[in-house]
Amino acid sequence: MPEEEDEPMVKALLLEEVGGPFHVAEIQVDDPIGREVLVDVKASGLCQSDRTASDLGGFPLPAILGHEVSGVVAAVGPDTSGFSVGDHVVASLQSHCGSCGPCLRDDINMCERPEFVRRAEGEAPRVTRDGAPVTPVVELGGFAERMLVHENNLVRIEQPIDHEIACILGCGILAGAGAVLNASKVPEGATVAVFGCGGLGLAAVQAAVIAGASRIVAVDVTTDKLASAVELGATDTVNSAETDPVAAIRDLLGGADYVFDFVGRPEVTKQAYESVGRAGELGIVGLTKPGATLEIGIDAPAVWNQVRIRPIFNGSANFLRDIPYFVDLYRQGRFRLDKFVSRTIRLDEVNDAYATMRDHTGRTVVTFP
Ligand SMILES: [Zn+2]
Ligand SMILES: [Zn+2]
Questions:
Q1: Which GO terms describe its molecular function (predicted)?
Q2: Near ion ligand 1, which residues have CB within 5 Å?
């Protein structure tokens, strides 16, 4: 293992106050101990949840966000088992212990001890600035040239693909495609409707193609996003700014077998529920405001319809299983990950990129030389 030459300065994007902008700053990243892996970050995707997290706070500042990361292993701790210097890796926020009940049942999403991946109390912080601790949010901190993480937050990419494409597998793609493939397990021939065609929704459209869905209806208020959905395999589109999506889906399919709501607004969730056909399923993925509820009928016809409602967290994913699978599908041309990345930027352009993200179709990715 090559020794670090006296912890060189590392450029990172720091959040110093809740709701504030990110600032480029110099940090120091410790050497790996135990099962830690030091990663040279090559690409880091912008996820809306980082902007939301930085507006809400709830973690010690200063902090480094960024949780969609692809990079190359620069050094490994003495107890790591699965990684060597030079490995291409993708990071995940699915912190897990590997030995609790859910982990042993292959449900690392529900791990009971996600804090397992942190350093112990009393150990030096992984990241510092002028000697003071810096918080890598969700134990990653990918908006930086280097990142020190527990090996349980990494998966090796055996046959490397471009970093700016690989990084988006870390969060959005996993959650969107996982909703279709892992959570609802959409069967071949089923009909699917997707409400909200941002990154996650588009990944769900692509996953519905992979699952062999017979019809895929994309619903959004933005024509660009609907065009992207068609490019990825949607068979029909509904612009819900112009057309009532419930009536449109009832017209097209008589109700969809599987409807996925990625929007996160109660009135849209209600429309999505009403678009489900008999014995169909509503997958709720989009996060909505605290306290929001969904009111549904429970009279006899509603019961006879046997519509299921499934809240889906993180695509019911296991990133260790799913990311290599999606890389394989990408290499075969079956998962068109390249279509999801629409712009690459430098670290110092992140504030501007977040400001325009809501109107931007496709993923924005920070690349590092
Ligand atoms: Zn994310
Ligand atoms: Zn666990």
A1: S-(hydroxymethyl)glutathione dehydrogenase [NAD(P)+] activity; zinc ion binding
A2: 47, 49, 171
